[in-house]
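#onboarding

Welcome to the new folks! Below is a worked example of what a typical request in this channel looks like: someone posts a single protein sequence, and someone else replies with the predicted structure as tokens. Don't worry about understanding the tokens yet, we'll cover that in week two.

Example request:
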Amino acid sequence: MVVNNFHSITEVLPAIIGFSIAGILILKFVFSVKIPQYNENPPGVLISSFIFIVSGFLFEIIYIYWSSIQSWAEGNSKIAFIFTILGGFCTNRFLKKIADDKEKREISVLFRNSIDLQVKSLQVINLYLSFASTEENINCMKIYKNNLLVSKAYDTALNKIGIYDEKDIDIISKYSNELQQCFNYIERFLIEFKLDEDIKVKETHFDSIEYQPQYERTLIIVKIAILTTSLFGIFTSYYLSKHYLNNNLGKLQDEFFNEYEEILDKFKEKLSFISELYIMNEVISSDLFDKLKYIRNNFIESINSYNVSSRKPIYLYRIFIRKTVFHRDNIVTFGESPEDAKNNCDSIIEYLKNTLKLEIEIQDSSPICEIISPWK
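Example response:
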């Protein structure tokens, strides 16, 4: 009885081996050894299921007819040689893919850790910008500014960017460009602050009442640069973690959403204290809008079916105004709906006109209002 049972097991053993090998490969290269969460449907699920089912029958056939296959190979040595070469080629490709995937994971870790540190440094700089501009605060900002680009881990990862796909390179390089631009704006702000200190010492300005330091006019540019760079940073970190590192996609996505809301809320909070900051140069406001839309669109392209309906959307409302004959600006506000964003804009216009006595002329009867939050 035991012998018969053993004989039955040996008959299906090739199929079991085939199922096992195919299952391991599918988990490794299709699912990346991750259990889909929140009803996520990974690409290739139908193909992988088909391969898994066929693999058992294929190994069974090879096992049964192995002696015939050997006899055929001996009589067709040239064809067998070709199959040997193809087998070697496929094996090399297989091993290369394993090495490439390992390198991508390692470089993604370097990117994620470096970007997280850079975003934290930007938030500290942003905090110091909220305080009075003193020599002590400026010196502290310089310390954190130097952390933005002086990173061996980040430089190492950036030099290896060619290992990624075209889409990955586009996202990483966008963040890198944003970081460099933000660094330049902060550097400009610090230089202008130093020049203003020299002006005060030399007392070269004529009317101290009307005089406005240049660095104060640069402040909104720096704040927007910190906002967009921080959002690009957390999105790039999320994107790389999602594709190469993280096992818990739901938790990862929640963390990204929470950080996105927190960074944007800090920016809106600063605007609410200084209503004039809602008035932005047309180029700056357009750039802000385009970058927020870029993050949203690229997030949606890679999104899974995780339910985000409980989160309130964020809309950006932008209207063209004219303060002087030669000066055309935008007023930019945010809201949880188009109506909310518009009401916020109307309140700002009313405040600027009635309280600050600014002469503002609305230039556009069709303002721009679109959702900019990554979630729907």
